[in-house]
């Protein structure tokens, strides 16, 4: 396995955001974390990336301990695309992408990564000189993902990519995530839109109040009646048939 998390605990004061989380992310896979607001999904990503302090447990990448300093986590190969996109609005698209490669020194490699991002997201190439703040929401999400890819991650963690997007744009962004995974990038996806996340992932974990309550293959969970009732708004068969 590539990324392994064992008995991870995160506390904010007296409140436990994560209560002994254990999960794994295998190389070349898309692993999704689903759950309601406040379940602990973003806290988990922040703990992995070193933004949130870990109160207990361990995180390893290829068997090596992952440090709790954000810049060292990026250098190790774990990159987070934050919720809300957070592009630099007053910088051009290409300048935003270059900002994602700040920890790299290989100019030829950075140029190659830029071309790979443009192949993955042709719309960014068309808008390479356009200010990021003038892009549509979907384009800004693609830019945020592209900026993360510029760091050449072993694991790309994407937090709520569908947030605030229209359904057609959500479809486009999810297709982009599948394409970047097809190109060899391992993805840890946090997504409140359970149906979209489960449709694209290989494996998924369900978080509730800081604990993992279910896990399984994406398609298996997508057809599980408990998931369909809790996260997709479907009524149990008995209740539906009695109407």
Account of the protein in words:
- The chain has 243 residues and is of the alpha/beta class.
- Helix content is 39%, strand content 25%.
- The protein has helices at residues 41-49, 70-76, 93-99, 107-120, 122-126, 137-149, 167-182, 194-200, 218-222, 225-231, 237-241, and strands at 3-12, 15-25, 30-34, 56-61, 64-65, 78-81, 155-159, 186-190, 203-208, 211-217.
- The strands form two sheets. It has a six-stranded mixed sheet, sandwiched between helices. The chain has a four-stranded antiparallel sheet with strand order 2-1-4-5, covered by helices on one side.
- The longest helix has 16 residues, at 167-182.
- The radius of gyration is 18 Å and the shape is globular.
- The protein starts with a strand and ends with a helix.
Helix and strand topology:
Elements: E1 3-12, E2 15-25, E3 30-34, H1 41-49, E4 56-61, E5 64-65, H2 70-76, E6 78-81, H3 93-99, H4 107-120, H5 122-126, H6 137-149, E7 155-159, H7 167-182, E8 186-190, H8 194-200, E9 203-208, E10 211-217, H9 218-222, H10 225-231, H11 237-241
Parallel strand pairs: 3-8, 3-9, 6-7, 7-8
Antiparallel strand pairs: 1-2, 1-4, 4-5, 9-10
Give a summary of the structure in a few sentences:
The protein is α/β, with parallel strands linked by helices and 243 residues long.
Attribute tags:
243 residues, alpha/beta, Rossmann fold, six-stranded mixed sheet, four-stranded antiparallel sheet, 10 strands, 39% helix, globular
